[in-house]
Amino acid sequence: MRAVDTNVLVQLITRDDARQVEVAEEFVARGAWVSQVVLVETIWMLGAAYGIDHAGIARAIGMLLDHDRLTIQDSDVVTAALSTYRKRPSLGFSDCLVVEVARKAGHLPLGTFDRNLSRLEGVEKLQISRGRGPRVGHGWGHGWGQVGKMKNSRRLAQVGKMKDS
Predict the structure, then answer these.
(1) Which long-range contacts (CB under 8 A, 24 or more apart) does 41-50 make?
(2) Threshold 0.70, pTM exceeds
C-alpha cells in the first residue's frame, strides 16, 4: 500500500489549494497508509499554521479515521488517544497518543514531569526530591549537559561528526 506525507493530509483536511486537493484525492483514491508520525505532524500543522482549535482537531482526526481510503497506523491506538483527547482539552493529541502507544506496547507507567498528563491512567508524575540536586555527569546522562554549552557552529560540527560515525 502507498503512504502519504503530512502535506497531503493537510490538503485533504483544509482544502485550501484546489490543485493540490485534486492531486491528493487522486493519490489516495486507491488507498493510502498514514503513519502515526505523519498524523502527529498533521495535527501540529493544523494547530500552529491554520489555528484550528481543540474541537476542530478532534473532528479532523475523526475524519481521517473514518476515511474509507486511508489506513491509519494502529488505528485502535489512535482511536483510544482521540477518546482521551476529546475528554481532556488541556492535553495535546500527541501526549494522548504517546500514552496509548506505550499502553499497547505494555510499557506503563509512562514517566513524565507534565502535571496534566500525569492525571491519565498509566502515567506517573516524576518528582524531584527536596535537598537533592540533579546528578550531573553521572550515569546515563553523562555528557548531554555539555551539548547545550557548545557554541552553535561547534554543536553542528559535532552533530555532523556523529552522523559519519
Answers:
(1) 41/6, 42/6, 42/9, 42/10, 42/13, 43/93, 43/94, 44/94, 45/6, 45/10, 46/10, 46/13, 46/14, 50/10, 50/14
(2) yes
